[in-house]
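Hi R.,

Here's the chain you asked about this morning:
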Amino acid sequence: MTRRTPHLHLGALTLLALALLMIWDALGGDLPLARLAGTPMGFPWRENPFLVHVMHEGARNLSWLLVVGLFAAIRWPVGVLRRLGTGARVQLALTVLASVLAVSLIKHASDTSCPWDLKEFGGVARYVSHWAWGQDDGGPGGCFPAGHASAAFAYLGGYFVLRRVAPRGAVVWLCVALAAGLVLGVAQQMRGAHYMSHTLWTAWVCWTVGFLIELVATRRRTSPPIERTAPLHASP
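And the predicted structure, written out as tokens:
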């Protein structure tokens, strides 16, 4: 198996996930799911103490603590991180941070409002697909993709780094990040803060960021060193 084969497989998987997301959007699955938690008077779970203080604020704070820990581990690695070289530990920390920033930048440019902003749920906005670029829905916007779910999905890129030294550990890391992100996404869905597609797109964006960084890192690792030749001097 060549070095390129694993990346081709992962690239195919990434494109397959993109196709499935497009199908989800085409089928219009967001509103029916939002209606399961929402009412004409709003979302009863919006101010639920557990969802707000634990699943939202607590999870976000924990995620940032883990980010700080990953950057500290570049110098002082612990656990399985000791098996990674310094460059790999840098890649891991930067991948998490880059994933969060990518989701935040897309949210900043988005005109899509949250479910709790819809007239159907007591707000002022009308439903407009997040693919309808430049189409204002009458609400505040800035709700696509799901920023909160990135608190867990941002760690998906760790799979690419860990699989070099601990394949089984990498799979566990991947599954935990996926499960945690979905749980956070469902919690926000119950509060009316996001549609399910927002959560799924966040997972895809974070995975893709990690994959692209891995491609760049692999290219740097496999590039042959530049040979330096001694300058030619004219004979005296």
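DSSP finds eight helices and no strands in the chain.

Let me know if you need anything else.
M.
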